[in-house]
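thread: overnight batch results

M.L. [08:02]
morning all. the overnight job finished for the chain we discussed friday. pasting input first so we're all looking at the same thing
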Amino acid sequence: MSNPRLVRSVWASVAGVVLLAGCAFGSHQPSPRPAASGSKSRPAAPAVASPAASPKVPPLIRSLRVVPAAVSQGDTVDIRLSFNAAPAAWQLTVNGTPYPAYPVGVDRYRLLLGTDPWSATGSFQVLLSARGPAGTVQAATGYRVLPRAYPRRTVTLPSGKVALLSPQVGQEEEALAGAALAVRTDRQLWSGPFQEPIPGAPIDSPYGEQGVYNGRLEWFHGGVDFTAKTGTPVHAAAAGMVTLARHLPRGGDTVIVNHGQGVFSEYLHLSRSEVAVGQVVSAGQVVGLVGATGLTTGPGLHWGVFVNGIPVDPLSWAQNPPA
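M.L. [08:03]
and the structure it wrote out:
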């Protein structure tokens, strides 16, 4: 069980995205004027070679797209952008908030944004502004977040663990885990779908489940809980670097792995961690052993995946992750 936690506009179309530019690209030659009616013809002037037309400059922004264009709460938004040449400066915003995008090739970038049961639904605007030799251009697109229904689960905690529900404990935990989740690495460290940390283990509590603890609705479940015996090996879902390996009030013995580009996985309630902060791990490597530490009613593993600080559905990364 996890915690919650200028300018006239010139319009063009590139890769289905609306582009705005401060000035038109290329050159414009005036059309020749027809001779006035009834005028006398004049001897033809000697031919003069005209200068070669300036080559047409391609738009600075090559593409901006969201894959897919609609997601449900708990899914990951995949925003991809590319340039025909490196801009002098550029900025990517979502509903007016700027976000960093990470390189995935020459003049190609990607931003991954998580959604969860708390995320607002509706339409979101993505705006890319870039400055080049011809001025500033902008590209706009968007995506939608759709609502998703989640089940409710009633949990009765033993008296010794009720105190873990207090807001003060939650704040302490967020401060400890928040620093580990705030690390940013430009390079993508994972490859392909994530692996489930305990292959074949049954799911005890799915992602998004609304937890009613001792008669009080507390939060949505920010991960997936697997049932397993104490001491069962827990494997890293993907390659990365460990940013946290310590005891947390609610998470118990916890390991957090940074997979790059704002993507992390967490493993809670361990009986023991098998890795240290700063250690590089490979996909499938044992990072700890199943336990019953922290806010839990028995042995098992909580597995979570965070994208830019938002807990998304981990199974979506095992089944259909961003390419």
